[in-house]
């Protein structure tokens, strides 16, 4: 028998800044149907997020402490 997973949804904070671009890239690639050839994606996302964070609520979904998704 497997043990149940711990699932949580919480508001993103400054500790999530490095992981959010990775989740956003994964979402963007899923939407595009292929990997993105974009060497500055994470950098541009970080800049966008820094500007938008004060105006937007971002939440992180975690399974067993690992971020698996976001919601804005």
From TrEMBL:
Organism superkingdom: Bacteria
InterPro entries: Acyl_CoA_acyltransferase
Name the UniProt record assigns to this protein: GNAT family N-acetyltransferase
Species, as recorded: Amycolatopsis ultiminotia
């Amino acid at each position: 028998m497997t043990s149940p997973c711990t699932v949580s949804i919480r508001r993103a904070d400054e500790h999530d800044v490095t992981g959010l671009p990775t989740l956003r890239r994964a979402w963007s690639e899923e939407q595009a149907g292929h990997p993105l050839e974009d060497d500055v994606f994470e950098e541009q996302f970080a800049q966008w997020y820094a500007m938008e964070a004060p105006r937007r609520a971002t939440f992180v979904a975690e399974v067993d402490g690992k971020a698996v998704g976001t919601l804005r």
